[in-house]
Amino acid sequence: MVSIDPPGFELPLRLFLGFRVLIDDLHAELARQGHPHARPMHGFVLQAIGAEGTTAVELGRTLGVSKQAAGKTIDTLERLGYVERARDARDTRRKIVRLTPAGVDLLTRSARIFDDLRARWAAVIGPERLRELEADLRRVTPPDVFRLDVPGWFGAS
């Protein structure tokens, strides 16, 4: 029996759908664990802020968005209690954005939940097959898995 390849456009759609399933499952579990207002964009932003904190300008550059867009996202995350603004101890003219304990908790829980979701996929397709899939994806993608400019990339024309 001859196997017919699916059309080329299915590959990016399936990859995106896999991403979407994982992110939707992550956020459903985060909501159950006390973070009902967390959104997919928030994870990129909190990762970009990092343990040392950052400025709105630096955040915008990392995310590939304007300083104004970064500022609006910071405002939202501040209202939700995930970040705080403070004067930079090294340069009091600069305002720095830092993670709060709630922001750190969100990232910590996300990491554990992603491990659980990966285990679920391994239970469905088998652990070896999942490792092979991950290895294949590493071969066809750039080595920098922590690119955080997705928000800007989605908005680029």
Protein model, in words:
With 157 residues, the protein is mainly alpha-helical. The protein has one domain (10-141): Orthogonal Bundle (Arc Repressor Mutant, subunit A). The chain has 7 helices and 2 strands, in the order ααααββααα. It has a two-stranded antiparallel ribbon with strand order 1-2. The chain is elongated and about 70 Å long. The mean pLDDT is 91.
Please write out the topology.
Elements: H1 10-32, H2 40-49, H3 56-63, H4 67-80, E1 83-87, E2 95-99, H5 101-125, H6 127-140, H7 150-155
Question: Could you list some keywords that capture this structure?
Answer:
157 residues, mainly alpha, Arc Repressor Mutant, subunit A, two-stranded antiparallel sheet, WH-like_DNA-bd_sf, Winged helix-turn-helix transcriptional regulator, MarR/SlyA-like, WH_DNA-bd_sf
How many DSSP helices?
7
* CATH fold-type name: Arc Repressor Mutant, subunit A
Mean pLDDT: 91
Q: Going by CATH, what is the homologous superfamily?
A: Winged helix-like DNA-binding domain superfamily/Winged helix DNA-binding domain
What is the name of the CATH architecture?
A: Orthogonal Bundle
Helix/strand order: HHHHEEHHH
The unreliable regions are none
Task: Please count the beta strands (DSSP E, at least 2 residues each).
Answer: 2
Q: Report the principal-axis shape.
A: elongated
Domain HTH marR-type: 8-142
Pfam family, one: MarR_2
GO biological process, one term: response to stress
Protein name: Winged helix-turn-helix transcriptional regulator
